[in-house]
Amino acid sequence: MTGEQIIFLIVALFTLGSALMVVTTRNLIHAALWLVATLFGVAVIYALLNAGFMAVVQVVVYIGAIAILFIFAVMLTRKDLRDNTPQTNKNWWAGALVAALTFVGLVFTLQSWSGFSKTASAVPLGFDAISQLGEQLTSPTAYVLPFEVASVLLLAALVGAVYVAFNKK
Amino acid sequence: MNFWNDPLKVAAGWLEGIFTGWGMDAVLAHVLVVFLGVFLLITILMVLDIFLVWIERKVVARFQDRIGPNRVGPYGLIQPFADIIKLIIKEDTTPDGADKVVYNLAPILSMMSVLILWAIVPLAPVMLGVDLNVGVLFLIAAGAIGTLSIIMAGWSSNNKFAMIGGFRQVAVMVAFEIPMLTMLMIPTIFAGSMNMNDIIESQNVWYFIISPLGALIFLIAAIAELGRAPFDLAEGESELVAGFNIEYSGMKFGMFYAGELLHAFTFGGFWAILFFGGYRFFGLEQVSPFLAILILVIKAMLGYWVIMWVKYTMMRIRIDQMLGFNWKFLTPLSFALLLVTALMNTLLRGADGWLYILGMFLANVVTAWVALEIARSVSKKERERVEGVKQVAEVHHS
What we know:
The complex is a heterodimer of chains A (169) and B (398). With 169 residues, chain A is mostly helical. Chain A is 72% helix and 0% strand. Chain A folds into 2 domains: 1-83, NADH-ubiquinone/plastoquinone oxidoreductase chain 6, subunit NuoJ (Four Helix Bundle (Hemerythrin (Met), subunit A)), CATH 1.20.120; 128-169. Chain A has 6 helices and no strands. Chain B is mostly helical and 398 residues long. Chain B has a two-stranded antiparallel sheet. In chain B, a hairpin with a 2-residue loop joins strand 1 (122-124) and strand 2 (127-128). Chain B starts with 6 loop residues before the first helix and ends with a helix. The chains are: A mainly alpha (169), B mainly alpha (398). At the A-B interface, helix 2 and helix 3 of A face helix 5 and helix 6 of B.
């Protein structure tokens, strides 16, 4: 086993463990903080894959914005943070079944893919992933349409949020 | 390769030679040497941090027409060590009902969010921790960890004042992250890269001269991110006692305090890197890496001094003023400036060097002037709405 694999295993175990804590812990704020740990683990996995941009954006967007928003929402909407109610309802087994089936299906689909057992080729020296990404996102022959549609969708959501929150006089 | 031309590489090679000579695995030796390098950098920063306490106290004393610490050691230089001994031997209290793990983790995360920033600081042309191609975004990502540490401290203390202070601080940090990120895009446009070292290397003319408004907005956003006056409403003493760190005592409070000082110095350094040419100063950085470090430290100190100058001469603003200032003025202005800069950069791409600088400078001045005119007319209307009677009263008076 190489050093990289050992690091990957540690990070993956950490990510999975904290993800498990998110759904099992009683305290909602603790769940949000464990979620931060999970997202951080995912960022580390991105970094291990040489995707520095994705790793940093993961931290900026998910930890810096979304997790903070979660914590705020929990603090501002719950009257009592000492939760004593059970986290699961009687349908927990159905959820577990769907999750297990999805996992099995994913593994099955991936195994029939030829690249599943190959090791990835090394990133060529001087390969600039960010400028490639930027060009792809703004090139008419590539992904400019999905990119713009997503932007318009976000803008619409923003305007909608302002409209809902706007205090009509 | 000479030690004086590339000290880091030579020292690392020498150490790795020793470790492998002891029969250590080459990879392990490399990891160990990198770890030692990180350890050395953090140690130097923490020692610097001790003296920053002294610098901060001396400078605030001068601003307030006092002398400052002058009893312990020459010019009071040993004062911070006395402070540290005091902080260490103080009782370490944990409030009742505090969330112990989160409570103890928060100061560590706070300090970490500052120290991690130094991974991407290019100290000299050949001395940089990580040559990250997304350096600019890394700055914001580290700030996200700082935000998290504050909300953790505020929540886990089981204290209403701490909680309100934490909320306020997070509101400030989340709000000012947007103008800051937008202003970080301006050096990126000029340099064509988000790499800190590339940004420095391409500054044949300081970006402060090309984009003075961008540098100013970055400074304002940085001060807000630091939670320093006039944006220190998180620790409004008269209403919140001390803010999010109210329940912390001893060295745990010391971590927050030292973290804040080092953060201010670090942002002074980033201001210098992004807008004042970093370690470059008329080719002096080519003479020796040590001279380059000295130039960067002097520039960072000057930036830190400006931040202190603002802190000790401005009054604290209210939270609604802060949010209004950010969302209604600074954010639209930074977006407009980004658009203008990108547009001018494309228009002037083929232009002569001087024309480019002049065009960019004038574009900045015009943007700032338009923004201030709009702000003035809006605030004039607002003033008339609030105190419209005043003018009538004045007429009667005369």
